[in-house]
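User: Hi! I'm working on a homework problem where we have to compare a predicted structure to a textbook description. Could you give me the structure for the chain below?
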Amino acid sequence: MHLLFLEIKRILSSRSSQIAIGAAVLFSILLAYVPITFVYYYSPEEQKFVSGFQAIKDEQAMRSDLEGAITQEDIINAITKYQAVLSKYGVDSRYKLPNEGSYEIEDIKPILHMIEEAYGSEDGLAANILDLSTNELPDFYESCSTHLANNMVLEQKDHPAAQSAAVTSYSKVSIPFSYYYGISSSAIEYEGLLIALILFCCTIVCAPVFSSEYQTGSDNILRCTKYGRKELAITKILSAVIISSTVFLICFAVWFGLALTFWGTKGLYTSVQILFTVIGLIDGNAMHFIFLLAACSLIMLISSICLTLFISSKVSSNMVSLAIAFLISIMPLMLTWFIPSNIACIAKALFPSGGIGLNNGFLYDLIDFHFLNIGNIAIWTPYLIVGVACLEIPLWIFMTIRSYKTHISEKAAS
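Assistant: Happy to help. Predicted structure tokens:
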């Protein structure tokens, strides 16, 4: 235990580690605040748009009547109001409304995309709300199920197992959906970006764990001691994992705490389907989604750090170790540049950081419908990505220990 403490202290005493950890905390604060600046609200009293915290306060007051379970009556009332307002201003789209008209439908905006999606055509095109008849309107939640089935035929035409798996998962989604004003989908997307930045910062911390001693040749002395081989390797791995996990948890706590401060807590109870897509396969609300994303990302972070440690145990240069680790971390993103997205979403699962990225992040896997199809077996990519990451953790730990035990530095060889 004392050796573990000393190793953690050694890693944290590095200037680069201190800067990287400080940057990660700073990113947590910054990325919690940035989504606030995207909120705009037209104030009829001031006859201008307000933004930031004032816009959040005004929007919350405007949409308070919509909060709670979304019923068929809410859907019909929203369609009726939408059609009346667009008719009043003589436009065929809400994007053509003047500021005053946009203000009049501000309270129903959170469910307009739901209506367009649920009542869309079989070929995936969104419905035009102006064409919907409230007198003959099908049940909203039945339409959502129908839309999912149609979408899976389009997405997985030749794979009935994937279609069946998606329909089965969606049947477990709680209805009716619930809406409460609060944290937005864009704010949650910034959580995914934060996780990627934390990974990069932790990579800076962990890349020199073994290679720094190779550079100085001190590993040759340590390897001659009683606990200088397997035991020391395990201690170094454990130290790096503890530091990285702690940094992740601190940064997530900072981001989440600030997000709740800025947005309030009620929005955590909004259904995932309202935030992203009405046919999302995840059953739960925003809070469940946020913590699920964090928990799965922590697993992928640990797996990535274990791979970084293996690289560090094979390379005698800090810069080379860091460069290779960075390259492998962004490889899942680079795959989308060179191969079709439907193939890249499967191939990226081979990498520990397969769900950590920007437009290829785990968040988008959770709201998408990509499956690995093997005969009559269909594996949803989020299960695949996390499962592979779990399997790779012990693999890279074993490989790192073995590499460190058998390493012969150039100085020793000469």
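For your comparison, note the following. The radius of gyration is 25 Å. The mean pLDDT is 87. Good luck with the assignment!
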